Every structure is written in structure tokens, then in C-alpha cells.
Amino acid sequence: MEKFWLVVKVVILALIAILVVQNIEMVQVKLLGWTIAMPMALLVVVIYLLGMISGRGLMGLIRRLQGKEPQRR
């Protein structure tokens, strides 16, 4: 089973490397009057990380509202 997960990790890393190599052109992101130029691959990674953070926070809020997670003091 360890070999299976190793293969999965290697495939995912290969796909990430292909994504980065194929998306190195610069794009402009405009938000609230600010303009930022960055590589497309970096933009994808930033959006993915923001989604992970906001998703985890949202799930924590839902669990707390349902009473499934003890509140921290």
C-alpha cells in the first residue's frame, strides 16, 4: 500500500510541475484599484491556498454552530 501512495504522490508532483512549466506567462490581476502582475502558476497556487484556508474556517464554523466541536477557551 505504501508503494501505491508513493506513486500517487509522484503523479501529483509531476502534474504540478507540468502546470508550472506550461503557465509561466505573466497575467495582471486587478482588485479594488490595485493591479498586480504575476505568473499564472503562482496565481493558481495562491487561489488554491486561499480556498483551503477559507474552506477550513467555514467547516469549523459549521461544526461549532452544530455543536459538534468543543469550543476553545
TrEMBL record:
Keywords: Membrane, Transmembrane, Transmembrane helix. The chain crosses the membrane at residues 6-24, 31-51. It comes from the Bacteria. The keyword Transmembrane applies. This is DUF1049 domain-containing protein.
